[in-house]
Write a structure and sequence with these properties.
There is one protein chain. With about 425 residues, this protein is an alpha/beta fold. It has two domains: about 5-220, 5'-nuclease (Rossmann fold, 3-Layer(aba) Sandwich), CATH 3.40.50.1010; about 225-330, no CATH class. About 50% of the residues lie in helices and about 10% in strands. It contains 22 helices and eleven strands. The strands form three sheets. Strands 1-7-6-5-2-3-4 form a seven-stranded mixed beta sheet, sandwiched between helices. Helix 5 packs parallel to helix 10 and helix 8 (about 110-120) runs antiparallel to helix 9 (about 130-145).
């Protein structure tokens, strides 16, 4: 999903192109690594074929003939044009996304699964028409539920990617979202571009490739072009500068995977919103001024029912601003593995190629962070840490975690459920060595 209604600001359409992969590699020969958001690719391939979907739901599980070849065919357009592809897969779900995106995206899945089971049980039909209706319902539900999360399929795919592309492809498992892992790799200089159809990557600060075709034609939106030209023109900001910090506030204003949109916060109001929270040079106004405006004005719902308006009371507004601040930090410090070379003479890329690297759990910024904010006691911060300490507005909105959850502990808990780690699930050292 990404940021709601943001894609028209990033590209002209879902089929538009403005460059070619071969032109990019010729113009910038050293920029030859591209990160692939595999969740986007996998779901699009699965749902492109009714046969793939039928085989996905086969009982017992069986391989899906042709699936790996179709996915590798999509990757081959990059490799044929001279790129090395870093295929990044999603990890475990984090709490912010579970609370927001998963509710809107998958909230009805359990009901659909129960309905599918009931449809399977129906074996006697009064007519061919009734049977066809049943079959159509089954296919529609299967298409909605289709996802690529079977370990056997993932294992088979990664082996096939390695077989077909050898050193021109690597497969990486993110601790949480692939988006944040891709942004971290971009910020560390490991990859030069990201392929995605999700607008989050543009807000995360990456140069993003969209709409890649088999011919190599694609749509490139660099972060500089987005901030300096396209967004100011689209929003009609005149001479006002647009910065990454302002863009992150815009992403929260419109709603994203971590925070819902307030009624009436439409793209048509972005210009007014930007003018209220920033100065002409693009710098943000004070945190106190910004969140006072958001609380008193931006979160007053419009164009909605009386019931919806009434629901945005003082309590809901405070909860919303707490999530707003957490979502802002997710765009700066979403959890991701940070790569370190074990050989000082090797670049990060070569360290990965030669399997001479280690990883730590850090953030998209490429640095270590404090996931729990240092607590204020009156005006003083206990365990003084200016960067990771609570602000005055954090106290007002009861915010204690940097991104709303503890990635280190959540990842450890998720790994503890895996059979291969079951014997060590109570051993802190085992998980520390695994992560660090």
């Amino acid at each position: 999903m990404g940021v709601k209604d943001f894609m028209p600001f990033v590209r002209d359409s879902g089929t538009a192109t403005n460059t070619r992969l071969q032109d990019l590699i010729q113009k910038y020969p050293s920029k030859d690594w591209i990160g692939i958001d595999m969740s986007i690719l996998l779901i699009s391939v699965i749902k492109s074929s009714p046969n793939f979907i039928d085989l996905l739901f086969a009982i017992p599980h069986r391989p899906i003939d042709g699936l790996n070849d179709k996915i590798c065919s999509s990757l081959s357009v990059y490799v044929k044009n001279g790129f090395t592809v870093a295929c990044v897969f999603d990890g475990t779900a984090h709490q912010l996304k579970i609370d927001q995106a998963y509710v809107s995206r998958y909230g009805k899945n359990e009901e659909l699964k129960l309905e599918l089971e009931e449809l399977y049980k129906q074996t006697l039909f009064s007519s061919a028409e009734e049977e066809n209706i049943n079959i159509a319902k089954v296919k529609a539900i299967r298409r909605t539920l289709a996802t690529f999360n079977r370990p056997d399929l993932l294992h088979s795919l990664t082996k096939e990617i390695k077989r077909q592309f050898d050193i021109k492809a690597i497969c990486i498992g993110a601790p949480f979202e692939a988006d944040h892992q891709l942004a971290a790799m971009y910020n560390q200089g490991i990859i030069d571009y990201v392929f995605s159809n999700d607008s989050d990557l543009s807000v995360l600060g990456s140069d993003v490739i969209y709409n890649t075709k088999a011919t190599g034609e694609c749509w490139l939106m660099t972060n500089d072009a987005l901030l300096m030209k396209r967004l100011p023109d689209k929003i009609k900001l005149n001479d006002r500068m647009l910065t990454k910090d302002v863009l992150k506030h815009c992403a929260c204003f419109l709603g994203n995977d971590f925070i819902e949109r307030n009624c009436g916060s439409s793209p048509s109001k972005l210009k007014s919103f930007i003018e209220k929270i920033s100065n002409a040079d693009g710098s943000l106004k004070s945190e106190e001024a910004i969140f006072e405006y958001i609380y008193l004005t931006a979160l007053n719902p419009t164009n909605c029912s009386r019931e919806q308006k009434a629901s945005w009371d003082e309590v809901k507004k405070k909860i919303h601003i707490k999530k707003w601040k957490e979502a802002m930090e997710m765009f700066d410090h979403g959890p991701a593995f940070v790569v370190e070379s074990n050989d000082a003479s090797l670049s990060l890329r070569n360290a990965i190629k030669h399997d001479s690297f280690s990883v730590t759990l850090g953030s998209t910024s490429g640095e270590s962070v404090e996931w729990t904010l240092k607590v204020r006691d009156g005006s003083e911060i206990i365990e003084e840490s200016s960067k990771w300490g609570q602000t005055e507005s954090d106290l007002i909105y009861n915010r204690t975690m940097l991104v709303g959850f503890d990635p280190y502990n959540d990842l450890r808990d998720a790994l503890a459920l895996r059979p291969e780690f079951a014997e060590n699930q109570h051993d802190d050292t085992a998980f520390t060595s695994l992560l660090l």
